[in-house]
Amino acid sequence: MNVLYLVLVTFFAGMGAGLGTGFAGMSAAAVITPVLVTFLDFEPYTAVGIALSSDVLASAISAYTYGKNGNLDIKNGIVMMVSVLIFTVVGSYVASLVPAQMMGNFSVLVTLFLGIKFIVKPVMTSKEAIKSESVQKQIVQSILCGVFIGFICGFVGAGGGMMMLLILTMILGYDLKTAVGTSVFIMAFTALTGAASHFWIDGLPPLAPWLLCIFFTLLWAQIAARIANKASPILLNRLTGVVLVILGVVVLGFDFFVK
């Protein structure tokens, strides 16, 4: 394999995944998987494993950056993470009983919807709106939303980051920065669990593309997270919307090209 070609492919895969993670809490699997399958002829299962492992550090460093700027709800995030992990397993089991293509492009459609939504109707909720809710109500909401997100993520096989952003902003009333910070915090753990299970089953992937994807995703996620935390709410909504729409269109294009 040509080294320059490998670097270019993994660079653009990591850039798309990192920008999606840092700006919107988007799973790297939504970008890296179709790129590796299309341009490097990876088996989809191996590509997903690489994408999930790239997600771990990118999400963790993004969560740290958002947390350092006061844009992370750890308490409710941990509660939601536990229910997400449990019901991802439940969703995976149910999915094994249902036709595989039933909800194939679900996560991409959610990505496009959120991108357009953030451009047309920005999320301008304040942090005070979250704090005004009672602790008991926040915990119950986090559990129920985690159940829903986990089940959908396990059933569809992707889209956890986008589903979390959708639920956190539109149902739980989080401001966009706190929603993304909380989303990437949860994703760091869910991606670690998913990557470990993939590598346990399939073995370690080829070293060079694996490390390159991790590095480029981490690099661009950090750049995006720093920009996002310094941007005004209205500018962040616009930037996030544009990134999501572009990534959604590109991923749909990859799906069409592969088929």
Automatic annotation (TrEMBL):
Topological type in the membrane: Multi-pass membrane protein
Subcellular location, principal: membrane
Any one Gene Ontology cellular component term annotated for this protein: plasma membrane
TM segment ranges: 45-66, 78-96, 102-120, 141-174, 180-200, 207-227, 239-258
Keywords: Cell membrane, Membrane, Transmembrane, Transmembrane helix
Subcellular location: Cell membrane; Membrane
Entry similarity comment: Belongs to the 4-toluene sulfonate uptake permease (TSUP) (TC 2.A.102) family.
Record-given protein name: Probable membrane transporter protein
Lineage: Bacteria, Bacillati, Bacillota, Erysipelotrichia, Erysipelotrichales
